[in-house]
Design brief:
Blueprint (H helix, E strand, L loop, with lengths): L24 E3 L5 E3 L4 E8 L3 E7 L9 E2 L2 E3 L6 H13 L6 E10 L4 E9 L12 E7 L11 H16 L1
Parallel strand pairs: 3-8
Antiparallel strand pairs: 1-2, 3-4, 3-6, 4-5, 4-9, 7-8
Length: 168
């Protein structure tokens, strides 16, 4: 059964043993919620000619309707690098064999963390919307990323990430 990414209702989560224990909300001291019991990670996939691979988030998702990086909750004992590659493959078909690691940038709130894993895409590929979390995926030139309605977390981190990409 497929789920309409334009719906405001999230798809059902797996139950029982099929559900990963990392797929849960974490609540901060101010009541703000963050997805991923063991933190989260996203993949900043950069291709020198095409730009950055961005995901238009489904309406039902956290900060739905915004653009951000493919990514999601880390599994218990999973590295940020492995989680970012896994999530980007699951959500966008990013081929892990065709990327070269560049750097990692971590936002650590003490009770929750998000790691951006930046990679260079060696061979341009056509991303595929592979699950209900995406409305669309597209390559966006670096200088046009700011023109999109960005996920607030990505918007806050983008200037520093962009600077690291540009300066190499």
């Amino acid at each position: 059964m497929t789920h309409d990414p334009l719906s405001s209702t999230p798809p059902p989560l797996p139950t029982g043993a099929a559900r990963d224990p990392g797929d849960a909300w974490v609540e901060g001291p101010n009541g703000q919620r963050y997805w991923g019991r063991f933190g989260a990670a996203g993949l900043l996939a950069w291709h020198p000619e095409a730009g950055i691979l961005l995901q238009h988030r489904a309406v039902w998702s956290h900060h739905g309707g915004t653009w951000g990086l493919p990514g999601g909750a880390r599994k218990q004992h999973e590295s940020a690098h492995d989680a970012a590659l896994r999530e980007a493959y699951e959500e966008a078909g990013v081929p892990a064999d065709d990327v070269t690691p560049l750097f990692e940038s971590e936002l650590d709130l003490g009770f929750w963390s998000y790691t951006t894993v930046a990679v260079k895409v060696e061979r341009l590929f056509a991303p595929i919307v592979a699950d209900a979390e995406s409305v669309a995926l597209r390559w966006v030139p670096i200088d046009e990323v700011d023109a999109l309605p960005l996920h607030p977390g990505f918007s806050n981190s983008w200037p520093a990430l962009k600077a690291r990409l540009v300066t190499g």
